[in-house]
Design goal:
By secondary structure, the chain is mainly α. It is about 75% helix and about 0% strand. α3 packs antiparallel against α4 and α5 packs antiparallel against α6. The longest helix has about 35 residues. The relative contact order is 0.08.
Length: about 180
């Protein structure tokens, strides 16, 4: 079906004047895909399966997904940019730990100390990242004038602190009760 310029302009103005359907507004959430990447990445970094190399693969894929998500969100506010920077540090420490783990010198004392330092840097940057995420979501909530509780982000932070304590105690096993 062909339209001339006047008919096309008229159709265009009519479509712009009418509001979009209500279900379209509910379905379209800005940057939903980026937040999905972040959340899926957090799950992959949290769940560790110690067989078939999944203890290396899942956290690495999770870190990359988080990095991609924060890359899209980084211009939202300064706290989201902080999350992006902290995830860059996490990815770099994870890559360095993987490289160190593949060398024949991985059991030497100097390398073991370097691994401990890298693990500490990764843990600290993760905690800072979750704090930045909480602050970023507070700002987004305020801008949107939405009354949403951010207790889940605080619970996530507490969960990671508890996991950190268990890691320091060298506890291994299932933590499904948490």
């Amino acid at each position: 079906m062909k339209y001339n310029e006047q008919e096309f302009d008229q159709m265009l103005t009519e479509s712009l004047l009418s509001p979009p359907p209500e279900d379209a507004l509910v379905r379209v959430i800005p940057l939903k895909q980026a937040m999905n990447y972040v959340l899926i990445g957090m799950v992959l970094c949290t769940v560790l399966l110690n067989f078939a190399g999944l203890n290396y693969l899942l956290p690495t894929i999770g870190s990359i997904l988080i990095l991609l998500g924060y890359r899209s969100l980084r211009l939202g506010n300064r706290w989201l940019y902080g999350c992006f920077v902290m995830e860059i540090i996490n990815v770099l420490t994870r890559i360095l730990l993987l490289i160190i783990g593949t060398t024949i010198y991985q059991n030497e004392i100097n390398i073991l100390e370097a691994q401990k330092v890298l693990l500490a840097i990764g843990a600290i940057s993760s905690y800072v990242q979750y704090f930045c995420l909480w602050r970023a979501l507070c700002i987004v909530r305020k801008k949107a004038s939405v009354k949403i509780s951010l207790k889940s982000v605080v619970a996530l932070f507490v969960f990671y602190v508890i996991l950190g304590v268990f890691a320091l105690m060298n506890y291994e096993g299932f933590l499904f009760l948490l």
